[in-house]
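Give me structure tokens for this 154-residue protein.
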Amino acid sequence: MNPTNFQLLTNTPIFEHLAEDDLGVVEERLISLEFEPGDLLFKEGAAGRYICFVVRGSLEVIKQTEGEDEVIIAELSEGNSVGEMSIIDGLTCSATVRAKTAATVMALTKEDFERIMQEFPSVGAQIFKGISTLLSMSLRRTSDDLAKLKAASR
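Here you go.
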């Protein structure tokens, strides 16, 4: 296994429960992608095709408001992932993701994720559990943020 990829995978919460051999199953399917500042990785409303793991650089997660303004809702750096929801639910991207700096990501396509689920069900189940945990934590943070906003507007 490539030492850089191994380090990336072991530092990514989605894969924290996988054994080294299982990480190899994932690594074989990762695609390296390079982005320049301003390049789009995902466009809100477009089909979601992959999950990305940030190796280098910084990404901005952007939501469009009803007034067509862009709001940066998160900044992602090394070790973060993005695109989890659309490979699970098959729906469109819920936000735009743009490279803030030059960035390198490793991507796992929806098709390769589904192949892992079929060919290596125990590995797929562990990845699914990791994604579910990550999304649950994100929803908890969002609920806390919403509660604070509502309390402040009283």
